[in-house]
Amino acid sequence: MRARKLTPRRAVLGASMAVALAATAVPAAADASPVAESGPKPPAIQPRACANPEGETPIPADWRCGYLEVPLEYRAKGGYGDSAASDRTAGTVRLAIAYRPAGDPAARVGALFLNPGGPGGSGIDLARGGAWAEEVSPEVRERFDLVTWDPRGVGESTQLRCAADDEAREDLDELAAPYQAPRSTAELRGNLGAADQLAKSCHTHAGPLLSHVSTMENVHDLDRLRGAFHDPRLNYFGISYGTTIGAVYANVFPHKVRAMALHGVVDNPARFNDLQRYVATDAEESDRTMEAVLAACDRAGSAVCALAGGAEAKYRRLVEKFGSDDSGGAEAREAWLATVGNARALSGSFTASAASQAAANLQKLYAAAFPADGTTTFSMPRLAPTPRPGFLKPAYTHSGDDVLNATNCTDLPPAPRSDAGWTGVWGRARTASTLDGAMLTGAYTVCRSLRDRSPLPRWTGPWDRTRAKVLLLNETHDQATSLAWAERMREAMGSRAALVPIDGFGHGVGTACSRKVMEEHLLTTRLPASGTRCADGIRNPFLNTAKTFGLFGK
Fold first, then answer.
1. Cystine design at 8: which of 115, 320, 443, 527 (Cβ 3.0–4.6 Å)?
2. Residues 294, 405 contacting (CB under 8 angstroms)
3. Is the residue at 167 inside a domain?
């Protein structure tokens, strides 16, 4: 039986050394009014049938699908943006696209592009069942083509593969499973050894695409997509890592943005410039979200949250017992990994079913670790499967995970090579949060050996070059991208950005209020008044039985 994989949330961690940017003139702002057209032109993409695998939710009948060929490699010629040239001799990459034409072609503003996050998230999956269309208001659906795509390396696009097949890839996961949230320097070394093996497999199987899945290449792909839909300026909606693509695009192409909404905002200045700070603040903010979830558990009561009744105290005792060091043998390690998996699932949940299941597992672990009769012998209880999101399963099911690693490691400056260097990252993160710090550090150690570089320079700032207004949205309790991150990004983007907090839990979860705010921005390019906030978020995940769109982690 294979060890269960603790998949890290679709997050992006990075750090980078500051690089000197060539001084470039910023073009004057273009008119931000909607772009009216006499009639929409068909997009310049290769049409294809929308694939609907057996057993999967189909793409709705009013959607269309296609491919766009883009260069494998872009080469910078003296800077960024329009000065970047493609290298056709290196080959091409095929991007799979799904789009829904505007409901009212005569009133069409343009195409609205969505990236759902990751790195490694599939836009095609998001089109299935109409989830993308449900995330925006009816008026936006009337006025915009809704467009999404599988980024390079992912899903139905040209895939990145770090193993020959699923079985070989899962063997690598099995090797890493015991060390995914290291409790000691010995376990950290085990994590690093497994990560080195994964990187070696990537170098063997991935081919040239491995060094061409950076954020900057995604940004240039997005610009090609904009051109294929004949839009002079970009309309964009990014969630989670999609906010990184959007923020970099807005600064690389400051004159090419018409409207941009970013929900679940990554702290990009930290991501691209300081790995230790980024991981530590991520761990700290994740722990604060967990505190809020546990308080919500107590308010909801034991009927829906089995951990209720001093939920935070129970959680802290579990972490202390199983996570303080690597003593206790194999059963204690199994209990630690179960605590990590269910705690991360709990703090990232925003529906009653997922939150209640994770809380029930944690309560079983607590009862076994601290029995009422005072016995000290621990026996691992039988737990329900840790709640996880459902993703489509193509022939090779790990391309999203492989792109997650490759993009993060390509975006980072050279990661620490020595065990001592990673001990420093791990130690600072564990100081911020014993559990979250261990898991987050363990998710990025692959970057020690996965060091392939894109020929394009990374964007490390500044973040306030865009000439368009940018709308930022963020839940007040978001495990993956905290409100504090969004606040720092709003400050970095300057006066052209506005942040609208959504009171409640979740990650990229649209509400009636947030959709209305976004509709106003997309239709007019205006930003909401200072102090605007949405009060209709998910107030208690244990009581939320409504169907919600959102992402499980970054």
1. 443
2. no
3. no
